[in-house]
UniProtKB/TrEMBL annotation:
Keywords associated with the record: Ribonucleoprotein, Ribosomal protein, RNA-binding, rRNA-binding
The protein, known as: Large ribosomal subunit protein uL23
A single cellular component GO annotation: ribosome
Subunit structure comment from the entry: Part of the 50S ribosomal subunit. Contacts protein L29, and trigger factor when it is bound to the ribosome.
SUPFAM superfamilies the UniProt entry points to: Ribosomal proteins S24e, L23 and L15e
Length: 99
């Protein structure tokens, strides 16, 4: 996988209360990913970008909410998130990998 695709697959970390609990207890991290990304692409992108070993990847398609606007009903975009579990002894540090 080329370097350009790595940055297109991973859009950023998904920060929530559930994601924080998973990161602390089970070493699972949650990412917003491209809607066309496969589990293998996500695994390779995380391993290349953060230099860790990934045990498994679980993906989830999130449906966009319907919202009321001044012009009637609107819909937020659908997006995809990935739960990335690391192998034993591995840890992910967002601060040091941004350099």
């Amino acid at each position: 996988m080329n370097q350009e695709r790595v940055f297109k697959v991973l859009l950023g970390p998904h920060i929530s209360e559930k994601a924080t609990v998973l990161a602390e207890s089970k070493k699972q991290f949650v990412f917003k990913v491209a809607t066309d990304a496969t589990k293998l692409e996500i695994k390779k992108a995380v391993e290349a970008l953060f230099e860790v070993k990934v045990a498994r990847v679980t993906t989830l398609n999130v449906q966009g909410k319907t919202k009321r606007t001044a012009r009637g009903l609107g819909k937020r975009n659908d997006w995809k998130k990935a739960y990335v579990a690391l192998q034993a002894g591995q840890d992910l540090d967002f601060a040091s990998s941004a350099e």
